[in-house]
User: What shape does this take?
Amino acid sequence: MIDLAASNQALLRVQAVATDPGTNWKAASAVAIEAPPDGEIRPAPESVWPANLTRTGICGAVSPRVVRFADGTYRVFYTQILPRPGFPAGANDYDNATTRILSAISSDGLTWTPEPGVRLSSRVGGAGEFRVVSAEVVPVRDTRGQLRMYYECCRGSQSSQNSIRSALSDDGGTVWTPEPGIRFEASARNLMGPRIILLPSGASRLYLAEGGIGIISLLSEDGGVTFHEEAGVRIAPDGLHDRHFAFAPEILRVAGRGYRMYYAGYGSAARADILTAVSEDGLRWHKEADPVLSPGNCQWDAAKCSETCVYPLPRLDGQSQRYGMLYEACDGTAADRRGVWRIASALAVG
Assistant: This one.
């Protein structure tokens, strides 16, 4: 979550919430960002389609990241998966798929309208014809409104060497220019799902997921340009619901209560739940036993509830603070419980 509506108070407020969104969430009854239908393998970014068109998992929409602006409007950055030329299976053969980062806007945090234009293409982002994924967008310290996007750049299959790179925007996130160099790369290691927390010291902590290891962290003391790895594992894949993979942390600073993390836990390759953990310092985390959102809320998340983001919704007169969640959902309609990936939504209930 990045709440630029709070940045006029203090930069650290952009990731802070006054109340804990908690562990009780209810899925909404409509898709937030729909996947393109099978026939739309080169869709315009602003396209919308009827729900009843044929979708078999060739195209997908995943990896939502929400920014709330000072005027109260919202922009979600997300990854659209499409077939790469010569590989018609698309997202059902993810190793050979291509992706691009798009955006959608909302006035209420509930209903989303896809925007024209590509925020970052795979080619511009350094991935050639393959994939740029998981756009984490944060304000740049000591600038007048500049934003930085951290993203995973993968130039081949998921087993190939990838890297975490970055791009800058001076117009609120519409036009992005990749920065020179690589923010982080580690030989023979595949790192993904970047998330940043801005620290009171002026440093930045980058959380990443690594297969077989879990969620790790890195530290930057030069404004988020170079990072060194911190000792230890933040979230190990050692529980009933995350023993296959712990992935994609979303971290909020809760007033007077430390941090709350929401993350995707894969109990097996065929099932993912959204899990949660709490921490006083952002390094040592205590997992909650039960998922906050599990597959089966609706037809589009029958197999997986995965990568997520949480953000404050507009206040209503006489009501306490409300929170929304966007998450990537898989309906399990293809072989091996794969299928169509869409971005779904949920509301905190409390």
Remarks:
- The chain has no helices and 23 strands.
- Residues 214 and 236 are 5 Å apart (CA to CA).
- The mean pLDDT is 94.
- The radius of gyration is 18 Å.
